[in-house]
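Hi support team,

I submitted a single chain yesterday and got back a structure, but I'm not sure I'm reading the token output correctly. Could someone confirm the output below corresponds to the sequence I sent? I've pasted both exactly as they appear in my results page.

Thanks,
R.
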Amino acid sequence: MPEGKHKSRTKRRVFVKTPGGTTKIQYRRRKPSKLICTECGKQLHGIPNLIATRFKNLAKSKKRPQRPYGGNLCSACTRKKIKSLVRNLGAK
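Hi R., thanks for writing in. Yes, this is the structure output for that exact sequence:
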């Protein structure tokens, strides 16, 4: 019978084979949901889907795309936003 903290499904159960040949259950954190674009809701590419402790150890260049609005908007929405900003500047 698992301990009380392992009864809930907040952590996933991973069956790991030990060197002795027996199978043991390890309780690991679930992966977070994929990041989405704030404008259109599409999944963002170029951002690793890791738990927070692993994500904080990555280099800054690997955490998000190196462009304006990187990590918030997808490339298509970024393009639209920059075009609209440039058009508004030209109108003034």
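A quick pointer for reading it: Residues 31-92 form one domain. Let us know if anything else looks off.

Best,
Support desk
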